């Protein structure tokens, strides 16, 4: 297996991190948590964390600079996902949606549209609360992705 899993860890739910930790150990995949604060990670030769300086998109920029072709980035940040996909890598959000070269433009367009609606007051709020169905969708999508490697 010649991939690395990069985690946009500042906003990643703990239940998703736990799934990733188990997958990293089971499949012996380097998994790197990137955040602008200390993130707890279990002792493992496959799991590490990188603390970057605070600031807008510093963690995102680090991930983009470090990821390589076919790596997997865990993020809910669609612009970050788009940059990763442009580098021939993949992105999976914590709700189990895989961003690929085939679908990232559609996701960016929808994000921009929803941002515009929100900015003009035509909609409020954000995504629904993270739930058990989301956790299961993520676990299934991760397993399906990793089965290819």
Name the beta content range.
5-15%
Structural class, by secondary structure, is alpha/beta
Radius of gyration: 15 Å
- Tell me about the largest β-sheet: 6 strands, mixed
The proportion of residues forming helix, as a percent range, comes to 40-55%
Shape assignment: globular
- The strand line-up of the biggest sheet is 3-2-1-4-5-6
Mean pLDDT: 90
Describe the protein.
This protein is α/β, with parallel strands linked by helices and 149 residues long. It is built from 5 helices and 6 strands; from the N terminus they run E-H-E-E-H-E-H-E-E-H-H. It has helices at 14-27, 58-66, 78-86, 104-119, 132-146; strands at 5-8, 31-35, 47-51, 72-74, 90-92, 98-99. Strands 3-2-1-4-5-6 form a 6-stranded mixed β-sheet, sandwiched between helices. Helix 1 packs parallel to helix 5 and helix 3 (78-86) runs antiparallel to helix 4. The longest helix is centred in the C-terminal third of the chain and has 16 residues, at 104-119. It is globular and about 50 Å long.
């Amino acid at each position: 297996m010649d991939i690395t899993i990069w985690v946009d860890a500042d906003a990643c739910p703990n239940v998703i991190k736990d799934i990733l930790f188990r997958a990293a150990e089971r499949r012996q995949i380097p998994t790197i948590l990137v955040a602008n604060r200390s993130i707890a990670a279990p002792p493992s030769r496959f799991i590490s964390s990188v603390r970057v300086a605070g600031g807008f998109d510093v963690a995102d920029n680090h991930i983009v600079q470090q990821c390589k072709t076919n790596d997997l980035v865990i993020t809910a940040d669609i612009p970050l996902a788009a940059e990763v996909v442009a580098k021939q890598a993949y992105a999976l959000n914590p709700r189990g949606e895989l961003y690929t070269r085939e679908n990232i433009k559609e996701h960016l367009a929808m994000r921009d549209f929803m941002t515009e609606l929100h900015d003009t007051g035509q909609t409020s709020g954000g995504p629904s609360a993270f739930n058990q169905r989301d956790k299961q969708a993520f676990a299934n999508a991760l397993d399906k992705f990793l089965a290819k490697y």
